[in-house]
Input
Amino acid sequence: MANSLYSGLPTTIFTVMSALAREHGAVNLGQGFPDEPGPEAILRAASEALLHASNQYPPMQGLPELREAVAHHYTRQGLQLDPTREVTVTSGATEALACAFLGLIEPGDEVVLFQPLYDSYLPMVRRAGGVPRLARLEPPHWRFDRAMLERLFTDRTRMVVLNNPLNPTATVFGEEDLALLAEFCVRHDAVAVCDEVWEQVVFGNAIHRPLIGFPGMRERTVKIGSAGKMFALTGWKVGWLLAAPALTEMIAKAHQFLTFTTAPNLQAGVAWGLANSEAWFEAMPEALDRSRQRLTEGLRREGFVVLPSEGTYFLNIDLAASGIDEDDASFCFRSVKEAGVAGIPVSAFYETDPVTNVLRLCFAKRDATLDAGVEGLARARDLSRRAAA
Ligand code: PMP
Ligand code: GLN
Output
């Protein structure tokens, strides 16, 4: 017995590449997780809670102290949220996304999504009965425009899913992009599900703006965040959903039967972190920015063409422009098996008409890891050229 949607799915590319990296002893610049252990004070706060606070079921919507800390945190984005009626704690953004899709989509509803897309979106939208309408974003700008939205939105559109900052392209959508999307959501009475897990990880002049803050969006946006990304603790899987009470009520009904709740000590650690991390929120993007520059410079020295990265843990290489005449997936498998470096092929984030010349690399790594990655990628390029000759 098998559900046909799941039986037709491959194993996620992140798992495939991390397994290959382990098997071949490769440097892993694939799956996005930091080398460093994460902020020690937050780890201590969670350990304290593990030993000295309750280890029984926390409230279904999340620990009150965490919901309050989350609501307070987002005042920095100009948002006023009611912690009791507008915040739901989940087991990572992955669960939050599933709750939003299962709780809000009625079978047959059209859902607008942008490729490249994070790999959990389409299966969960479909499992909820949604009918995907897919846009295709392409390098170097990876942006949508009015004509694209006119083609995608119909009178059956009920939801749009936006990931901003966008994984894997490392782009941050600006004021104009977001205002345009908000205009379409309002015109079509659609809900926006905004996956903003990378909101704290932006570089240089890029500024993260939440779509929920745009005119007409406060009542029709579900904003999703993740402590994993905020605090470089990706294994914690503590996330949240922020939405007006009517949306939160439906989403909580999905959440109560997916996981019901999330480990209380990790919630306590995150609550402590949100209340005590001004310095971390300054230092974390600065440190990542240095790693981003180190990897970019190393790759450029070796002759690779690097696409701009405005946010996330990732930057991308344009393989074709770097003189590699091999598609991203083939190059990626060659690189991990023959040259000891894992990356992620960006084509894996498309269902239709993939962009096949872009390789995603994670730079949330120690200098030595990044330098070894550059060396390995140069070897992979030489092997690829030799194979093509
Ligand atoms: N959405 C995006 C865009 C992500 O990049 C990730 C993780 N990298 C997630 C969701 C999942 O977040 P979590 O680990 O909190 O489930
Ligand atoms: N979001 C991470 C990435 O983009 C991977 C998460 C996962 O492995 N499920 O690399």
Summary: The mean pLDDT is 97. The first strand starts at residue 27 and ends at 28. The radius of gyration is 21 Å.
